[in-house]
């Protein structure tokens, strides 16, 4: 018997429903905030996808040569594909430009809780603005999405990649060594990150500064940032980064959006292209980030485009679904108004199909009983699956242009005029 490839999953109806619910709410939020949907290929040039991702992700991409001998890969994230599109077909579009994409991604990670080799994300990207209000919008949007989904007790871990980069640039570390430090910080390997800096012969002042930063985190965002600013006061670019993050969080706070924030000075994300604020939302029940994002002002230029600043976020649909399940939050019942139409006799089946069409045109989800079961068995099946109403179509009632309407939860039924059937169902559900 065939099985799924390791790390891949079959999503059964309830799981597919949860996934599509998160996807649909993500799409609704994109429209509310003015993000236009785009669709990019699952398969891209390896060179494109490898250009500015981390070494760890490069090693875990699904890569192969196609029949034309070209080295290609399944996308491990969205941003490179979106950047390619912006650098080429969308380069002359007016700014700001807001883009939304959703779909499956692939990485050859070790399968574990919350980590799969095929996973889904909803991606929001804002192009054209360097201002802190653009960063604030991405944070507020993410907060809005998680709130709309009903998630509880989530927290944002927030940092700024230029704090670390400002220090290491001033110390003369090359990009490769800086990336090594960031990768270790992303894995919370603070001692190892410090060791890499020490081996690169940075100053004692730098080591002391880094050590303090790696230990600096807290829930009082502005108090933490005051401490970070004092710690990095001899590194001009790092000070500017702290001030930028202060402005972003101040805008979020003054907007009235209530974000539970943890500022972490030694926070880093695995992707190499970030140039500013970075963040990840978490919930206590799931010990992995629900998504992540930040600012990347130089990526479009890397793909041959103009220098276009950008900030974005990838929402992890799989992990959000896991978190909602852990918290016992279910999608709003899709079958709240659902209907099954049951024909008593074969000769009334055509009328049953006709009525089902009428009800669907009114926006009601309708199934027709197609198994030829007895009325009692058909009703038992409808009850088992949580259907709200049953419409029983019988020859005797049809002579009077009527049907039997049964409210499943209350086990009550009555005869209603066919002309009033839709209104009776909608009125009874209020």
CATH hierarchy, class of the largest domain: Alpha Beta
The strand order across the widest sheet is 1-5-6-12-11-10-7-9-8
Instruction: Please identify the structural class as seen in this structure.
Output: alpha+beta
**N-end to C-end Cα span:** 48 Å
Please compute the radius of gyration using only Cα atoms.
27 Å
Number of strands: 17
Strand content: 15-25%
CATH architectural name of the largest domain: 2-Layer Sandwich
Largest sheet: 9 strands, mixed
Count of individual domains = 2
Summarize the structure.
This protein has 17 helices and 17 strands.
Describe the structure.
This protein has 430 residues and is of the alpha+beta class. It folds into 2 domains: 13-326, 2-Layer Sandwich (BirA Bifunctional Protein, domain 2); 339-428, Rossmann fold. The chain is built from 17 helices and 17 strands. The chain has helices spanning 13-32, 46-50, 55-59, 79-87, 132-148, 161-170, 175-186, 190-199, 204-214, 221-231, 236-254, 299-302, 317-326, 349-361, 375-384, 395-398, 421-428; strands at 36-37, 43-45, 63-65, 71-74, 97-106, 118-127, 155-160, 217-218, 261-264, 277-282, 291-295, 310-316, 339-343, 366-368, 389-393, 402-407, 412-417. The strands form 3 sheets. The chain has a 9-stranded mixed sheet with strand order 1-5-6-12-11-10-7-9-8. A hairpin with a 5-residue loop joins β3 (63-65) and β4 (71-74). α5 packs across α11 (236-254) and α7 (175-186) runs antiparallel to α8 (190-199). The longest helix is centred in the first third of the chain and has 20 residues, at 13-32. The protein is elongated. The mean pLDDT is 91.
């Amino acid at each position: 018997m065939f099985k799924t490839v390791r790390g891949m999953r079959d999503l059964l109806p309830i799981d597919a429903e949860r996934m599509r619910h998160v996807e649909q709410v993500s799409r609704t939020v994109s429209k509310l905030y003015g993000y236009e949907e785009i669709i990019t290929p699952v398969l891209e040039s390896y060179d494109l996808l490898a250009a500015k991702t981390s070494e760890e992700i490069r090693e875990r991409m699904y890569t192969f040569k196609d029949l034309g001998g070209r080295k290609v890969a399944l996308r491990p994230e969205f941003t490179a594909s979106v950047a390619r599109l912006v650098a080429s077909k969308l380069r002359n579009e007016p700014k700001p430009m807001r883009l939304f994409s959703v779909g499956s991604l692939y990485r050859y990670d070790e399968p574990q809780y919350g980590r799969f080799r095929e996973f889904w994300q909803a991606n929001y990207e804002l192009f054209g603005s360097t201002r802190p209000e653009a960063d604030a919008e991405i944070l507020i949007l993410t907060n809005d999405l998680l709130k709309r989904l009903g998630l509880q007790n989530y927290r944002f871990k927030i940092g700024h990649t230029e704090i670390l980069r400002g220090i290491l640039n001033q110390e003369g570390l090359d990009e490769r060594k800086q990336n090594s430090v960031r990768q270790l910080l992303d894995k919370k390997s603070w001692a190892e990150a410090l060791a890499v800096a020490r081996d690169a012969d940075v100053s004692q002042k730098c080591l002391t500064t880094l050590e303090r930063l790696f230990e600096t985190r807290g829930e009082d965002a502005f108090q933490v940032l005051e401490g970070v600013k004092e710690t990095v006061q001899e590194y001009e670019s790092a000070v500017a980064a702290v001030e930028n993050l202060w402005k972003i969080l101040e805008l979020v706070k003054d907007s009235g959006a209530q974000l539970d924030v943890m500022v972490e000075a030694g926070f880093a994300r695995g992707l190499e292209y970030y140039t500013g604020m970075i963040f990840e939302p978490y919930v206590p029940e799931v010990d992995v980030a629900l998504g992540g994002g930040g600012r990347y002002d130089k990526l479009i230029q890397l793909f041959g485009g103009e220098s276009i600043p950008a900030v974005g976020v990838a929402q992890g649909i799989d992990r959000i679904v896991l978190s909602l399940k852990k918290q016992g939050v279910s999608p709003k019942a899709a079958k709240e108004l659902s209907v099954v139409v049951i024909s008593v006799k074969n000769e009334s089946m055509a009328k049953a199909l006709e009525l089902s069409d009428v009800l669907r045109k009114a926006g009601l989800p309708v199934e027709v009983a197609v198994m030829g079961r007895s009325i009692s068995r058909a009703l038992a099946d409808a009850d088992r699956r949580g259907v709200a109403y049953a419409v029983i179509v019988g020859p005797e009632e049809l002579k009077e242009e009527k049907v039997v309407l049964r409210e499943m939860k209350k086990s009550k039924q009555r005869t209603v005029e066919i002309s009033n059937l839709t209104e009776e169902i909608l009125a009874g559900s209020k």
